[in-house]
Sequence to fold (264 residues):
Amino acid sequence: MSNRYAAYKELLVEPKENGVLLITLNRPKVLNAMTYAMHTELSNIWDDVARDPKTKVAVITGAGRAFCSGNDLNNPDPDLDMVREIMSDAVRIVRGMIECDKPVVSAINGVAVGAGLAIAVLADISVAAEDAKLIDAHTTVGTVAGDHGCLLWPMLCGLAKAKFYMFNMEPLTGKEAERIGVVTKAVPTDQVLPLAMEFAGRLADMAQHAIRGTKRSMNGWLRQAMPIFEHSVALEMVDFLDADILEARQAFREKRKPRYPSAQ
Fold:
C-alpha cells in the first residue's frame, strides 16, 4: 500500500490493479458509526485520492451490513473548539469530493445516515441496495441539515421532495431513492459492490482527461450553490451547542424518545 494511506485507521484503503481504489468505512460492529477520527479521515482522503498517480477511480462502501449509521452518539459532547474542528472537517469532506477530479463511486450496501449519507450521495455514481435506508437524520438529533442536504438534494430530486426528506418525515429506501433521482442505481444487496466495482473499472478504462473534465464542469452547479452549504453547516454547528442536541444525545443513551426543549 502507498504510504499516503498508511495513517488511516478507521478507513480500510485497498488499491486495485486496474487503478480503482476501494475505501471501506471499517467499524462494522457499530454499523460504521462515525467517530470524530473517522470524520477527520474522510476529510483527508479525497486530497490523497486526487494526488495519487496510481488511482483513477475511488469506490467507497461500508464494512458489514451498513454503509454508515451516522455520527456515533457515544462521541463526547463537543466544546466550542471541537465544534470548529468538526465544521472544518465537514466543509473539507464536501469540498474534497466536489473538487477531486477523479470519479467517486459509492456502494451503499445498507443504511446510510447523516454524514455517511453525505458521502454516499455526493459520489458521482451511487449504487444502493434496494432496501437500504437513506436518512439525513440531522433534524431528528436537533441540528440543521448541514452536511450536504441543503446543497445537493434540491438538485437531485427537487425542493418539495428534498424538504420532505430533510425534515425526516419518513425513511427513504434505495429503490425509491433511484426513482426520485437521489441515487444512480438500486439493486439487490449482493449486487451493490460488484456493480459499483464494475462501473469503476469501466471509468478507469476511459479517457481520463475527458472524464475528469466532465466531472469538473458538471460540478460547477455545486460550486455555485456552495454559499447555501456553508450557511447550512454554520447553522448546524450553532445547534451543536443547543439544548435540543444535548437532549437527543441523552435520549439515545437512555434508549427513549427525545423531548426537545424547543418543542415544549
